[in-house]
Amino acid sequence: MTRESVQVSLQDTWYSSRNPTRRWLHCARRDFIISKIRHWARASSGAALDVGCGSGVYLPTLAELYAAVVAVDANESLVRNAVPLAQKYPNVRLVAGDISRSGFADGAFDLIVCSEVVEHVADPAKVITELHRLLKPHGLLILSTPQSWSTLEVTQRIGFMPGVIDIVRLIYKEPVFDAGHISLMHERQVTQHLDEAGFHIRERFKAGLYLPLVAEFLGQRGLRLERWLEGRIRGGALDWLLWTQYYVAEK
After folding, report:
1. In terms of pTM, does the model score above 0.90?
2. Distances in Å between the alpha carbon of 101 and those of 4, 10, 23, 134, 148?
3. Which DSSP string do the residues of 186-208 spell out, in sequence order?
4. Which domains, from first to last, does the chain contain?
5. Which end of the chain has fewer CB atoms surrounding its CB within 10 Å, N or C?
6. What is the DSSP letter of 185?
7. Highest mean pLDDT (candidates 10-14, 17-21, 73-77, 79-83)
8. Residues 181 and 152 sit within 8 Å (Cβ to Cβ)
9. Do 212 and 220 touch, CB atoms closer than 8 A?
């Protein structure tokens, strides 16, 4: 199986996983981003950009709120997979390519969504600076990326060790592959990149608690425990344990 087809398989699994915690972590992130798109959308006649569009979960919402939507992904398989969405929403244009060399004009977009992308690139600062260039003055960036020392990311580093991954796949009984996170960052690093690019952070949030073994073996009971603990960790000294960090930043 090629890496491109692996990513398609993974994204097809995330939102329908039989494991309650896995399904919740991805669905909660999707729903949070959609809520922020709806909350911050300003220009129904304007243009939006979905960077790393993946399976296209944000495209229907963007297509509803903006006159023109561009969806770009470096994975050509994911772009091909999103063709039915582009056919359904004629104001959506799909582009296969590297966002750091997009060729889009300065200030082309009113809103940019960049969810779970910067951890996959070698130079996140370069990508964030490019997104700043692509936004109109006072345009908004909605950004999400995993926290480097969250329980999920640390466990994944162990889980993908030779031999261990075979046990993990046996437990989950569905596609489980290395997500390719090469540039994991903590909050201070993301904040620095946004500041240096010229962004003003309007909102920040953290969410998504994964408890190893609890998630795999306690099902819905484990999920209830994780959600309860997440609410008590968020905003405190231990919120670096939560999986995803979110930012709304203005140019």
Report:
1. yes
2. 20, 26, 33, 11, 26
3. -HHHHHHHHHHHT-EEEEEEEE-
4. 3-250 (3.40.50.150)
5. N
6. B
7. 17-21
8. no
9. no
